[in-house]
Write a structure and sequence with these properties.
This protein is of the alpha+beta class and 425 residues long. Helix content is 40%, strand content 20%. The structure holds one RNA strand of 91 nucleotides.
RNA sequence: GGAGGAGUGGCUGAGCGGUUGAAAGCGGCGGUCUUGAAAACCGUUAGACUCUUUACGGGUCUCAGGGGUUCGAAUCCUCUCUCCUCCGCCA
């Protein structure tokens, strides 16, 4: 969330951010509520001050065994006044807090302005789309030929848009996860964590999914718990309401989790096969850093995610998302999209974002600055490193041969017991 | 699920109705000493909000969270949450 004082002092910056994001929010209303709040606060605090002083006086008088009836009746009147204003302040506080939680982060100045399709900027391309002397199959056909995914039974067990990996398919999924975790822990300096897949409301609010996106998530009503849509939520909230010692920064975590998304309202769009599912696997990267380093940290985070695809020798492109493409909490974001040769489309497998202090404010994650001795908010970042299901799609589609055999990239073979290919069943 | 115990500042830990926003210790910061460092000693060290004549200034709130009693609550009552111990159940 943004600091109220910042909005008060920079209303035009905030308004521009909202406009660039294609959102509609009434900042003037917020500001007038803020003014009203401060007026009332001044009034009620002066009354409280009077009351406190009198109360202390009563204490002193009682000690001296003097009469205090006059003070008591005076306090009674003041208390009545307080009781009239106080509820109004509380109501306004509530309103303000609600409004504040709905205001998005300010996009960084380097973020292209405009609606998503036209304005996302491709900043990098890696590898070449494979050329085939035959018509490449899509992953649904391949999965069938290889007998590695059972769509029918998945929907019997859970419903449509769930996946059941089988045999070498399950093995491949596990290999990818292990390969990515090993890369990030051994080569990129991330600490591995394995967090809960269910989180409470406070955690969901801390990273910014709530209150806006409640209908997009699976929720356990009896316990008010949510299935995580990404490991970003539990991992970022590890340090909620904490002060991280400055010398520990930056802190890097990587985590494998399953991710759960209702995808409400998105039916009918790219819905075939593995592309859009309710449960998928992801290795996530999360960073807590000092403010002045966060945009450099975003670049290295992106490189860490890219490395996965480079080692697997898969063609991809990186886009800098526009003001309308970046998420609510992000100030800057890159997407990595893999080319899937059979589906003939790009698949988003990673989003790498810098949130600045937006999440840190919500979740109250701070560090003490050595120089000034002040408590400051850290900056948080995260990125997928990367999401599978889609990774697996691209892998089998790009590495297919004419008879449907899929070659295993070199980097992955150790994780498949040296297996070099998956043959048709 | 049942029965007990506990939640205090960056940390450990006192306080159990009246200058207690909170002793003490550790840690942090500054200094003395030292060629330098360590040790020792001295000083200093919570946060959020807010006001004004923006000042080494004033005020309000905060001792898990909400509500209550009282002129006055970290301290009493009540509900909620979290943690610990024991029992039950269980992968």
């Amino acid at each position: 969330m943004l600091e109220l004082k910042f909005i008060r002092e920079n209303p035009d910056t905030v308004k521009k951010a909202i406009k660039d994001r294609g959102m509609k929010l009434d900042i003037e209303e917020l500001l007038s509520i803020d003014t009203k709040r401060r007026e009332l606060l001044t009034e009620v605090e002066a009354l409280k001050h009077k009351k406190n002083a009198l109360s202390q006086k009563i204490g002193q008088k009682i000690a001296k065994k003097e009469d205090v009836s006059r003070e008591k009746s005076e306090i009674k009147i003041i208390s009545q006044n307080i009781n009239e204003i106080e509820p109004e302040v509380e109501e306004i506080d509530q309103k303000l807090a609600t409004l504040l939680l709905l205001i998005p982060n300010i996009p960084h100045k380097s973020v292209p302005i405009g609606p998503e399709k036209d304005s996302n900027k491709v900043v990098k391309e890696f590898g070449k789309a494979p050329k085939f002397k035959f018509e490449p199959r899509n992953h649904i056909e391949l999965a069938d030929i290889l007998d590695i995914i059972d769509f029918k039974r998945a929907s019997k067990i859970a419903g449509s848009f769930f996946i059941l990996y089988k045999g070498l398919g399950a093995r491949l999924e596990r290999a990818l996860i292990n390969f990515m975790l090993d890369l990030h822990t051994k080569k990129h300096g991330y600490k591995e964590v394995f967090p809960p897949f269910l989180v409470n409301r406070k955690s969901m609010t801390g990273t910014g999914q709530l209150p806006k996106l409640e209908e997009d998530m699976y929720r356990l009503k009896d316990d008010d718990l949510f299935l995580i849509p990404t490991a970003e939520v539990p991992v970022t909230n590890m340090h909620r309401d904490e002060v991280i010692p400055e010398e520990k920064l930056p802190v890097y975590y990587t985590a494998y989790t399953a991710c759960f998304r209702r995808e409400a309202g998105s039916y009918g769009k790219d819905t075939k096969g593995l592309n859009r599912v309710h449960q998928f696997d992801k290795v996530e990267l999360v960073k807590f850093v000092k403010p002045e380093t966060s945009f450099d940290e975003l670049e290295s985070l992106l490189q860490n995610a890219e490395k996965v695809l480079q080692l697997l020798e898969l063609p991809y492109r990186v886009s800098a998302l526009s003001t309308q493409g970046i998420s609510f909490a992000a100030s800057k974001c890159y997407d990595i999209e893999l080319w899937a040769a059979g589906s003939k489309m790009h698949l988003e497998v990673s989003s790498c974002s810098n949130f600045g202090d937006f999440q840190a404010r919500r979740a109250n994650i701070r560090y003490r600055d050595k120089e000034t001795q002040k408590l400051l908010y850290v900056h948080t970042l995260n990125g997928s490193g990367v999401a599978t299901a889609r990774l697996l799609i691209a892998l089998i589609e790009n590495y297919q041969t004419k008879d449907g055999t899929v070659m295993i990239p070199k980097a992955l073979q150790p994780y498949m017991d040296g297996l070099k290919e998956i043959k048709p069943a």
